[in-house]
Amino acid sequence: MAPDTHIGTTAIVTGAASGIGRSIADHFAAEGRAVLCADINRAGAEKVAATIIKDGGHARAVEVDVADEPSVQAMVDDAISWTGQIDALAANAGIMAEGSALTLSLEDWTRVMSTNATGAFLTARAALPHMIDGGGGAIVFTASTVALAGMKGIAAYSASKGAVVALTRQMAADYADQNIRVNAVAPGAVRTPLSESHFRARAEDDAEFETLLEAVIDRYPLKRWGTTAEIADLVTFLCSDRAGWMTGQIIPVDGGLLELR
Ligand SMILES: NC(=O)c1ccc[n+]([C@@H]2O[C@H](COP(=O)([O-])OP(=O)(O)OC[C@H]3O[C@@H](n4cnc5c(N)ncnc54)[C@H](O)[C@@H]3O)[C@@H](O)[C@H]2O)c1
Questions:
Q1: 28 part of a folded domain
Q2: What angle do CA 186, 261, 191 make, to 5 degrees?
Q3: Which residue among 15, 67, 227, 261 has the highest number of C-beta atoms inside a 10 angstrom radius?
Q4: Across all residues in the chain, what is the average pLDDT?
């Protein structure tokens, strides 16, 4: 097994208070990285950082709104004053809103695009100069299978993740010669507060909610939900030297959904 080259390196994770982001933070910490746990939910981020520290890792919590440029800049400044470097970035924070083109409010469209698309852009843009100064780095965006295949009723969310996919390729092309690798993971359904709220919004009551959750599994060839750890494993791999020749990739982790339908 190759020696662990991550000890002493620094990773930022946005959306670290919950779900997939929480798992990414835990995985980075287990590799020996110092992890900046960033989230709009300060108390949640503090809890995750405290657990990592209790388990012997290095972590720090920071409140950020990824849709707000000064807030994102303050998050990056915090990382730099903490360890002096940013080696890996998981730009993962995201939200969802229900609605197709005719039912979605402009307010919801703007809110989702601001967090998911503009937020990914602002986060990566703020980290880039420090990665370039440090001789390179790795950025992984959390996209979604809905950026690669249609799904009813989530127009803003799908469009925002489509923007993330295009941004991944664009930034990978623009910064490859500065040794910055940019990739994206495209998860299928993973049971988290975000996915549960989506089905909650469609269900009349608890019984229908449970039925909808079960129906999800039926659509997946592997007949189960993905786990946050399965997404986090790929994110941390893509940030590692083992993925040193990978950039511009959009990788589904989806129980076979996209290829085997
Ligand atoms: N769960 C799924 O099925 C699924 C599938 C595909 C993609 N994703 C993507 O994975 C990412 C993580 O989602 P999750 O399922 O873990 O959801 P989650 O709701 O469990 O976690 C999202 C986190 O992002 C934070 N956040 C929201 N808005 C923010 C903002 N403006 N600034 C900073 N933090 C903010 C929330 O506080 C929360 O902690 C999202 O980008 C989501 O779109 C999730």
A1: yes
A2: 45
A3: 15
A4: 95
What's the whole-model pTM score? 0.97
> How much is the pLDDT for 201?
87
Domain count, the chain: 1
Residue 88 is assigned to a structural domain of this protein: yes
User: Is the CB of residue 117 below 6 angstroms from any atom belonging to ligand 1?
Assistant: no
Range of the domain at 44: 10-188+227-256
Alpha carbon of 115 to ligand 1 centroid (Å): 10
Task: Please tell me the residue having the least CA distance from ligand 1 atom 20.
Answer: 19
For the chain, how many residues are written?
261
Ligand 1 binding pocket includes 229 (Cβ within 6 Å):
no
Does a structural domain hold residue 177? yes
Angle between helices 69-83 and 119-133 (to 10 degrees): 30
Angle at 239 between CA 91 and CA 237, to 5 degrees: 115
Active site residue 157: yes
Cα–Cα distance measured from residue 31 to residue 171, given in angstroms and rounded to the nearest whole number: 26
Q: Which two tokens stand for residue 200?
A: 């909650």
Q: State if residue 172 touches ligand 1 by the CB under 6 angstroms criterion.
A: no
User: At which residue do the structure tokens 């967090």 appear?
Assistant: 115
